[in-house]
Structure formats: C-alpha cells, structure tokens
Amino acid sequence: MQIYNRQLGEVEVLPQDVYAFEEGLPGFETLQKFALLPFAGSPYFHWLLSLEDSNVGFLTVDPFPFFPGYHVDLGEELLQKLKITDRRQVAVYNILTVPESVALTTANLAGPLVFNLQHKLAKQVILDNSKYHTKHQLFTTRQAASESR
Fold first, then answer.
1. For 22-76, how does the pLDDT look when each residue is reduced to its tens digit (9 = 90+)?
2. Which long-range contacts (CB under 8 A, 24 or more apart) does 32-39 make?
C-alpha cells in the first residue's frame, strides 16, 4: 500500500512492515499501526511511520552497534504481551532526536521500542530505575568531527 508521510512523501509499505502498538506510543496513544521501514543506505537506521497520522514518524536506530553495553531487560509481562517465546523474534530500536547538526544526534535509551518480528507486535518500554536517559549522544566526538568535515 502507498502511504503519505510528511517527512518522506509517498512511501510504499508492505504488509510485513506493519506492526501493532496496541497501547500506542507515549504521547501518541491513539495511534496503533506503524510501519518499520529501512533507512536507505544503512542497516542500523529505520523509519517508524504512523499509518494513521501522516505527520507522525520517527527515525530509529539499532542501539547495539553504537552502545555495545546497552541492555534491555524484557520482563515476563512484556514477553507475554508481545507473545515473545524466542529471542530471535525480538528486535530493539531507539527513537532518535536529530538536530540541525546531525553530529549531535541523540538516542532515547530510556524508552526502547521492542518488536516481535514474527507476530508483528511492538511496544515502547519505559525503563524504570535505569542508568539510561533520553539523550545519549549517538556519535562519539571523533565520529562527529569527521562527519563535519
């Protein structure tokens, strides 16, 4: 199906790209259908686009290549809610904030997006009592300096 997104324009979405966020996302609780689409040219970045509101879309990242010690504890309640029975079913992404200077991009590690790739269910989890916060620098100072050249 074709959808329109304010950031990307017309986008092709396949059925296998669609995930149900049964509780929505914090701040967007009424939006429950999102497409997870690859960002052209990078295996680490994806777009998360609402199918219900063309103004809502987020750039996300696979956190593990950028934050090797990152850990998300998937509690029993979450595993049941998302029907996760095997860790190979799981993907974790984090929403990015991309300012005018891309080198200053930050990742929200306190609120990871957890996807069940098999059952097409997803949820944003807010990590309680965590060492993570909403503004972790994505790029190191060295990476940022080389990108600004």
1. 999 999 999 999 999 999 889 999 999 999 999 999 999 999 999 999 999 888 9
2. 34/122, 35/3, 35/11, 36/60, 36/93, 36/115, 36/122, 37/11, 37/13
The fourth-level CATH superfamily of domain 2-147 is BH3618-like (2.30.290.10)
Domain ranges of the chain: 2-147
Instruction: Please tell me the distance from the alpha carbon of residue 24 to that of residue 69, in angstroms, as a whole number.
Output: 28
Which residues, listed in sequence order, are joined to residue 58 by a DSSP beta bridge?
48
Q: Which residues contact 121 (CB under 8 A, 6 or more apart)?
A: 19, 20, 22, 81, 82, 83, 115
Could you write out the three-class secondary structure of 50-85? ECCCCCCEEEEECCCCCCCCCCCCCCHHHHHHCCCC
């991009």: which residue's tokens? 105
Mean pLDDT of 88-102: 95
